[in-house]
């Protein structure tokens, strides 16, 4: 049962400004998502199948033909918006303390992490648990290969391939291939 106010949480976390991370509603929302994700993943591992609604009920929105596998973990879920024909591989980790939007026809491979959080640069603020979260947007017709990390504040354009093991902390233009750490961008022809 949901015992938190999504509107209140979004007013705190979705502003792109530093906020104090210890809040009862935030903790309750995290625990609710953790419980649903854990049940889904445990059932999937033990039985080879699980109730997809455990995850779908967490999400802000999702389109047709949304497929996800075992190991799906999210911070809240309600800030996650998924288009049509999206597939997400095993061990997907999502810190969605701000909006994360994924377009249509997107393939996300295994062990991908999408993280909106940026901890305070000031050491005292960090010690006192102040963070800020920046939105992430992934366009249409995108492939994100295995073991990619995407940081907060990033926009990935349309028709992009993100090569495996890449760390993406800056915007990626449409019609490009990006790979590496640090990443190298090459236009697609």
UniProtKB/TrEMBL annotation:
Q: Which Pfam families match?
A: Hexapep (PF00132), Mac (PF12464)
Q: Report whether Repeat shows up as a keyword of the record.
A: yes
Q: Which Gene3D superfamilies match?
A: Hexapeptide repeat proteins (2.160.10.10)
Q: Signal peptide position in this chain? A: none
Source superkingdom: Bacteria
- Which keywords belong to this entry? Repeat, Transferase
Q: Which residues form the Maltose/galactoside acetyltransferase domain?
A: 10-64
List the InterPro entries. Hexapep, Hexapep_transf_CS, Hexapeptide_acetyltransf, Mac_dom, Trimer_LpxA-like_sf
- This protein is called Acetyltransferase
What Gene Ontology terms describe what this protein does at the molecular function level? acetyltransferase activity; O-acyltransferase activity
Family (UniProt): Belongs to the transferase hexapeptide repeat family.
């Amino acid at each position: 049962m949901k015992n938190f106010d999504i509107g209140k949480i979004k007013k705190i976390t979705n502003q792109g400004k530093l906020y104090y991370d210890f809040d009862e509603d935030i903790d309750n929302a995290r625990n609710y998502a953790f419980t649903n994700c854990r049940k889904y993943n445990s059932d999937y591992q033990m039985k080879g199948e699980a109730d997809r609604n455990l995850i779908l009920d967490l999400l802000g929105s999702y389109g047709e033909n949304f497929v996800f596998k075992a190991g799906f973990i999210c911070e809240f879920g309600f800030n996650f918006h998924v288009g049509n024909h999206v597939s997400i591989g095993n061990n997907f980790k999502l810190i969605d303390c701000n909006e994360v939007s994924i377009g249509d026809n997107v393939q996300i491979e295994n062990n991908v992490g999408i993280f909106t959080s940026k901890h305070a640069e000031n050491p005292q603020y960090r010690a006192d648990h102040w963070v800020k979260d920046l939105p992430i947007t992934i366009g249409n017709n995108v492939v994100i290969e295995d073991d990619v990390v995407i940081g907060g504040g990033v926009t990935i354009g349309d028709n992009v391939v993100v090569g495996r093991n890449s760390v993406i902390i800056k915007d990626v233009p449409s019609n490009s291939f990006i790979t590496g750490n640090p990443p190298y961008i090459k236009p697609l022809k």
